[in-house]
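Please fill in the sequence for the structure shown.

STRUCTURE ENCODING:
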């Protein structure tokens, strides 16, 4: 991980948005505040696009993936396993050997699922 005096590194915050009240923005903002207080330079996707939620899904994913690849860590919000986007972000983070954190505890993600790709499934 790239070290800084006060900053632990750049961290991407991932979790469920689609189908949650207010797109789960409050949970994203609360986690981002805790992570910043702990010294992380946080990339919070809920801060992008001026709060717009009407753009095509692919537009959000392209922006999010571009940000994720510039990070040293990913923090996963509760319920991330049920989110298509967060699962893709988790899989990519595993492939990039990023540090995987639990956004609720700010500690290492305990027993994260094994990352896998299943091509050809609906």
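FILLED IN BY: designer on duty
SEQUENCE:
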């Amino acid at each position: 991980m790239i070290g800084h005096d006060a900053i632990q590194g750049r961290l991407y915050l991932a979790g469920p948005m689609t189908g949650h009240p207010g797109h789960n923005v409050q949970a994203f903002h609360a986690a981002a505040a805790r992570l910043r207080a702990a010294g992380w330079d946080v990339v919070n996707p809920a801060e992008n696009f001026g709060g717009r939620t009407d753009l095509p899904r692919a537009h959000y994913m392209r922006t999010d993936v571009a940000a994720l690849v510039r990070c040293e860590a990913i923090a996963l919000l509760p319920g991330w396993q049920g989110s298509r986007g967060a699962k893709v972000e988790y899989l990519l983070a595993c492939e990039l050997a990023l540090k995987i954190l639990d956004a609720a505890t700010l500690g290492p993600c305990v027993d994260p699922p094994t990352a896998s790709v299943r091509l050809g499934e609906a």
